[in-house]
Amino acid sequence: MRADSCSHTAAVNIHWVDATILCSYLLGMVVFGMWMGRGTRSSTEFMVGGRSMPWWAVLCSIVATETSTITFLSVPGLAYTGDLAFLQLPLGYIVGRWIVASKLLPRYFAGELFTAYEVLDRHFGSAVKRAASLLFIITRTLGDGFRLFLGAIVLQHVAGIDMNMAIIALGAATIVYTFAGGIRAVIWTDFIQFVVYMLGAVIAFWILLGSIDGGWGAVTELARAELTGDKLRVFHFDFDLTGTYLFWAGLVGGGVLAVGTHGVDQLMVQRYLSARSQGEAALALRLSGFVVLLQFAFFLLIGTALYAYYSQNPPTDPFLKSEADRVFATFIIDMMPVGVLGIVLGALFSAAMSTLSSSLNSSATVLVNDILTINSDSSRLRLAKWLTVAFGIAQIVVGISGQWLESSVIGSVLAIQSFTTGIILGVFALGLAKGRVGTNSALVGLVVGLAVMSAIKFGTLLAWPWFALVGSTVTFCTGWMHNKLFNNATGS
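The chain above was modelled as a monomer; its predicted structure follows.
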């Protein structure tokens, strides 16, 4: 979303009924999270929930965590301006999750691990583990700080409050329950937030269809009209490395990306480690791919319906293609009746908070467990809690700074998060390769991977679904060749 994407939507004074619903929801999430996290007295409980979370709660947490305000607003915008081609990516996501469940989960459950990067310590030592952990923390703080900014945009324009206050309010609410309850509070609030944001989306879709003359029949007729070029089309089999939503980019690039985001990213791995067993973690992970596919399909259909609605009711201020993110937000603000608006806004903020809370807890866990050396459990717990606050404040600062950045910069920061997962995946692949690869070789691969991917991101038109594949390949091949050339098998 552009920093000014909602600039054409005038701030409104939210009705007291909607304000009450929204405030009650935000307060309720804080209280519920604190209540669910009661009795958290050890670092194991704070970081991995005592390894006691049921598979269905873990599943909902996985889905809610990868669903942000960007999903809620941007995915409908893709269908509004185009077709359903985005669905080709979740196909790859499903494949990638099955690979993670079969190849990586056994390694995570082969010991009492707290983070994904402890596996790297086994193969390369602490230097590589800390480098990967630091890369995760930096990109996560930047990326989710801007996600916080995107969520606050809607709060600002609906409530008519200062942007800085909107960012602080949303960030502070998330900090409080994450601080109190750790991953257990995060997972259970994710479950509630998953239910809320899907309920809100369903309500908005129902009202949207009721506002279209001819209902769903009119939507499909307009979508298949010759002028639109079939907006219900899903598959595009062209092979173009610059094309984002194409079949091979989705299946191959999206598959490798999913192995990175769901296989070696602490944000997700921490959920698996909190499950009751490897089997339950695998079940949650595999099923989540199909849930995400259905979820994306639903949000895309919302975008198609929005196209039909605004074809019948042209806006006084036409939507530019670059401003597609504001289409659904505008409909929510303009068309939701009193009482319903508060529910839908609560749904939108649920999508934002679920991702932010997960980010705070995983960043604190990685810093305490992988970078700092603390033996006392009480000290680990206390430090993890206060680091949650520190990372929350850092994300608030990043979110506030988003007001002065160009849209391309925001997009670049979010894209960096995509290609860093590929680089870390390449390091993991080196650890799993036959024949021992040394520490220096892994570090060289990581550094070269970062350099090459930075050049590709900012100097080429390569579509981002390919970033993880290219990043992991460059990192792996560089580390492997360095190891062979310098005979670094001993880890020197």
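The radius of gyration is 22 Å.
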